[in-house]
Design brief:
- With about 280 residues, the chain is α+β, with helices and mostly antiparallel strands.
- Among the domains are: about 60 residues, no CATH class; about 80 residues, no CATH class.
- About 35% of the residues lie in helices and about 30% in strands.
- It is built from five helices and eleven strands, in the order ααβββββββββββααα.
- It starts with a helix and ends in a 5-residue tail after the last helix.
- An eleven-stranded antiparallel sheet has the order 1-5-4-3-2-6-7-8-9-10-11.
Length: about 280
């Protein structure tokens, strides 16, 4: 008995501490439930107040103020904050003849790396400038992201990077460039589009101009390419490239982009056989 009595002197305090911790956790959980219940009640009351005020129109400033405050409270409770919340509001282009200023004419699901973090968003790329547009997932708002905060983005089978001309010698301008081939030689293309409206035969027409500028980046230097000849000159350090292009039946001409892309991929395999 003395043995168990002595042991109880040590165990009882721990039992009391455990009981206290369990009671304290229960109180904290109950407090969390009360907070959640209050948030739900506020949201329900806000929606009810909006319905009542809308169903019974009044010209009093009091009702209008209460209606506005109820909407704000309901939105704050129902919709959480989203990390990408900076940028100007964007208004989509209104077409007159089916023309559009976008890389892809419709909104597409993609990924944008914004301030070092990747987000899955609905994207639209306006080629009238570096204008990457996203659809806010919580509100019916279209946001034009600040280019300096976007490092890269991708959608469908397209990948774009934000290149600073200060980091690449001979690159004409900074901005979003599509990556066509990656390796020891990097093939980029800069897409641009302009739309002007004019009156022809008493009818408003849209004049669309597309520009695609291709660059090979090697050892931090950009070289413009536009043909087989200019590409072979830019990649003149590998004598087998011309024969490899002939062997693989790489065509340029009307299919300039696919020809340049295939040629640079072949060059990258020749210079790095381990990645074949």
């Amino acid at each position: 008995m003395e043995k168990w009595g002595i042991l109880s002197l040590f165990t009882n305090p721990f039992m009391k501490i455990n009981a206290y911790c369990s009671s304290h956790n229960a109180i904290r959980w109950r407090h969390h439930e009360l907070l959640m219940s209050r948030s739900i009640l506020i949201a329900v009351f806000s929606l009810w107040l909006v319905y009542v005020c809308s169903a019974q129109p009044s010209d009093t400033a009091f009702v209008q103020s209460a209606l506005s405050r109820a909407r704000n409270v309901g939105m704050q409770v129902a919709k959480p904050q989203w990390p990408i919340n900076t940028g100007g509001q964007y208004v989509e282009y209104t077409s007159i003849e089916g023309e559009h200023p976008y890389f892809v004419s419709q909104w597409v699901s993609g990924t944008a790396r914004y301030l070092g973090t990747s987000y899955g968003v609905m994207l639209l790329l306006d080629l009238r400038g570096d204008r990457l547009i996203i659809q806010h997932p919580l509100y019916d708002v279209k946001i034009e992201l600040s280019p300096e905060k976007v490092s890269n983005f991708s959608f469908l089978d397209y990948r774009f990077i934000n290149v600073n001309r200060d980091s690449i010698k001979n690159l004409p301008e900074s901005g979003y460039h599509q990556v066509l081939a990656d390796g020891s030689a990097l093939l980029l293309v800069r897409h641009q589009k302009s739309i002007q409206r004019s009156i022809v035969s008493q009818k408003v027409v849209a004049i669309v101009k597309n520009t695609h500028l291709y660059y090979i980046i090697r050892t931090g230097v950009a070289t413009p390419v536009w043909s087989k000849k200019s590409l072979l000159k830019a990649l003149d350090d590998h004598g087998d490239l011309k024969a490899a292009l002939k062997k693989n039946k790489v065509k340029f001409g009307g299919a300039r982009e696919s020809g340049l892309s295939a040629a640079v991929r072949i060059y990258n395999r020749l210079t790095n056989p381990d990645n074949r």
